[in-house]
Structure formats: C-alpha cells, structure tokens
Design a protein that fits this description.
Distance between the termini: 21 Å
Helix content: 10-25%
Largest sheet: 12 strands, mixed
Radius of gyration: 20 Å
Shape: globular
Order of helices and strands: HHEEEEEEHHHEEHEEEHEH
Oligomer: single chain
Structural class: alpha+beta
C-alpha cells in the first residue's frame, strides 16, 4: 500500500496533481483516521447508510454512463504559510481526450496551466508570473506501446496520472481503505446535501501511526464529502488532519467539482468539444518529454514486477476486493 506525503501533492499544479498523480486516491493522498489508539480500543463503526450513499457517488462516474464530462474545478490548501488556490475547468472524452485549464495563486504569485490531449499527443502549457510560458508534449501512442508489457493496474495508474480517468479513481480509492462512519443532512450554499464522514481503516491507521505514536503532521486522518441529496453529485471533498505534533485537526485541502455536465457514451460530440482537444504551439519552443517519460515508465514496470514477484514456492497474492458493491 502506497501513501504520499501531503506536500507531494504539490509536484504538479496542486489540483492537477491531486486528481491526476498516479493512484492519488485518498489512499495515496495524506491519510486520515481517528487519533492512534491502543489495539484493544474498538475499531470505528461503519454506517451502512453512508456507504450506500457513497456507492451512489461512484455511480455518477461510471464509464458506462459517462462519455463526456465537463465541470468546473476549484481547490484550496489553506494550511501552508502561503495559501494556495487553483480554479479552472475540466473536460474529458473518449479515446484519451482531455482538456484541463487552471489558474493558480500561491501567495501573491499567479500562474496558469493547461493540459490538452487529442488522444495522440498530450500538451502541457504552463506560465508563472510574467515569465514566458513553457510547452511540453508527450506522445501517447509511444506510451501505450510500452504499457502493453505492464499489468492492468499499472496501465490504469499511468492513464490516471495523465488525467484520462478524471476523478473516478480519486473516489474509488476511498472505499477499500476507509470506513464511512457518519451521514448527516446539511444545507451548503444553495444545495441540500448529505455530508459523509470517513476515517482510515485499522490497517492504514496503524501503518501511519502505530499505537502510542502521534499522527503525522500534514497527513489527513478524516475525509468529508458533501453530496447532493437528490442527484448524489459530490460537490466538495475535504481532508482534515493535524499541522503540529498532537495538534487538533484542521482543514488541509478542499476540492470542489462544480456545474457538471455529462453526455452519455454515443451522444453526439458538440463542435466546441472538438476544438477544445486541439493545440497548436506555432513557432514556440516545445520540450518533447516522451523519451524521459518512457524511461520512467519502464523503471516503474521493472520495479513493480520485482516488488510483487512472490518468493519461490509461494502463491501469488489474490487481488483485492473492488470498492463497488
């Protein structure tokens, strides 16, 4: 089981990194659970109604129901010395088509980042302050060719890293490792919502903070999701955890998924969608990151094969259960 330190989320534009970093489901993001307790203390009790609601959230992103997904994105990390915010829009479609536009602010410094894919080439365009923008491209067909030798899980991880699977893996990673303990009815902004609260299960909790040890700083131990009471669309996801040794939990990160528009598979693609997935760098300098990226993938494939290779004479581990019912 892999976990990322909270600040590892800052490697890409923060929102993009949280959504698109390999396996950055809540399990990889800083984790959450009640404060460390002695082994004899009863485990957190699951709320079946909250879990049922969460599975309805997952259903919103079922690939069989979603051909095109358009929505606004917003993120805030309020616990840093300089508050970070990101806001923009996300559009995804069949055949690895993607467009993500973000405006970011860290303290007084502003920036922009866009990721554009037509299914053949992924473009990343970034600019900070008054500096000239940088453009990088990645050949997706070359990536696909290398991934043919990898496991299905790793292929999903890589595609998630590029954003092609949107936010589904973010939510799918919650159920296997977290316990939904509570569902509450609230009014948020103009919406009637169900607030779901989840904490890490015993295995994850012990891995992050063995009994008698304080919970790691900047590592979430509680997740809260605000879900539309009628449609079950997840408006907002929050991670809460301490910023000081044995300190109280505060809001570490908030994500909002705004104004969703979903077209079913097979629906006619709007003309503006076709234009959104194309990018022409013109005469600007372009860095081709394909070779470097393929080398990284090859290293990951090799390391993964060694890591999960069962000792001689033992059976391979069984696959974990799906988060869906």
């Amino acid at each position: 089981m892999r976990h990322l330190r909270f600040f590892a989320l800052l490697g890409l534009p923060i929102l993009a990194s949280f959504l698109f970093f390999p396996r950055v489901t809540l399990s990889q993001a800083p984790t959450q659970t009640p404060p460390p307790v002695a082994p004899s203390t009863p485990a957190s009790k699951a709320d079946p109604k909250a879990l049922e609601t969460f599975h309805k959230v997952l259903d919103q992103f079922d690939p069989k129901k979603v051909g095109w997904l358009e929505m606004g994105l917003w993120e805030e990390v309020p616990c840093l010395p300089l508050r970070f915010q990101a806001e923009g829009d996300f559009l995804s479609g069949p055949d690895h088509r993607l467009r993500l536009n973000l405006k970011t602010r860290l303290g007084g410094q502003e920036g922009t980042t866009s990721m554009v894919s037509d299914g053949v080439t992924m473009w990343t365009i970034s600019a900070t302050g008054g500096e000239p923008r940088t453009i990088a491209k990645l050949g997706l067909r070359e990536v696909e060719e290398v991934l043919k030798t990898s496991s299905k899980q790793l292929r999903q991880d890589i595609y998630q890293a590029q954003g092609f699977q949107g936010v589904l893996p973010l939510f799918e990673g919650i159920a296997p490792q977290m316990i939904f303990t509570k569902q509450e009815t609230e009014h948020w902004q103009t919406h009637d919502v169900l607030k779901l609260t989840a904490v890490w299960n015993a295995d994850v909790s012990k891995a992050q903070a063995p009994p008698s040890n304080p919970w790691p700083q900047l590592m979430p131990r509680e997740c809260r999701i605000l879900v539309d009471a009628k449609t079950f669309w997840p408006y907002r996801l929050e991670l809460w955890g301490p910023t000081a040794p044995r300190g109280p939990d505060i809001l570490l990160l908030a994500l909002e998924f705004r104004n969703p528009k979903i077209l079913k598979p097979g629906d006619k693609e709007p003309e503006r969608y076709s234009r959104a997935f194309s990018f022409d760098p013109g005469k600007e300098n372009v860095h081709d990151s394909t070779k470097q990226y393929l080398e990284r993938i090859s290293q990951i494939i090799s390391a993964t094969a060694q890591q999960f290779k069962p000792p001689s004479g033992t059976a391979a581990p069984r696959p974990t259960n799906s988060p869906r019912p």
